[in-house]
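tool=predict chain=A
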Amino acid sequence: MDINEARTVVTVLGLVCFIAITLWAYSGRARKGFDEAALLPFSEDDLPALKGGQTKEGNKNG
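tool=predict ok
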């Protein structure tokens, strides 16, 4: 196999992978997961740590 043939095969495989990932990312099935992930920074489940390793609820060591 000539080096140019190997380069061609790798380029075509890369293009096929790119098209497959693009189609998956824009598919309707993936949208729900992406919408949930987009809201993660706004969830308030985690409380920020205060001085001394305590949270607003009290000492995290007990």
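The first strand starts at residue 54 and ends at 55. The chain has a mean pLDDT of 82.
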